[in-house]
Amino acid sequence: MNERGQDAVEHALSGMEYPCRREALMRHAASNGADDDTLGHLGSLTGDHFDDLAAVRESLRHKDGRAGD
């Protein structure tokens, strides 16, 4: 995911209350006007429970094969 995609995810998740499940992330992002690409990234996250935004970021990096960046 490029920087613009990461920014879109972070914007879509602004105000999200953690911890939460993937479905809650997607509902919140949709209510914040997330586009289909952003919702697709969230829907394909590894894991189903996220303690904070950092955990979402880590899952996105892992999904993109960039763990440890």
> In this structure, how is the largest beta sheet organized?
2 strands, antiparallel
Total count of domains:
1
Q: Which percent bin holds the helix content?
A: 55-70%
* Strand segment count: 2
What would the principal axes of the Cα set say about the shape? globular
Protein name: DUF2795 domain-containing protein
Pfam families: DUF2795
Structure notes:
It holds the Pfam family DUF2795. InterPro entries: DUF2795 (IPR021527). This is DUF2795 domain-containing protein. The chain has 69 residues and is mainly α. α1 packs across α3 and α2 packs antiparallel against α3. It contains 4 helices and 2 strands. The protein starts with a helix and ends in a 6-residue tail after the last helix. The chain is globular, with a radius of gyration of 11 Å. It has one domain. The chain has a two-stranded antiparallel ribbon with strand order 1-2. The mean pLDDT is 90.
Gist of the model:
The protein has 69 residues and is mainly alpha-helical. It has helices at 3-12, 22-31, 36-43, 53-63, and strands spanning 20-21, 49-50.
Set down the secondary structure blueprint.
Layout: H1 3-12, E1 20-21, H2 22-31, H3 36-43, E2 49-50, H4 53-63
Antiparallel strand pairs: 1-2
Helix pairs in contact: 1-3, 2-3
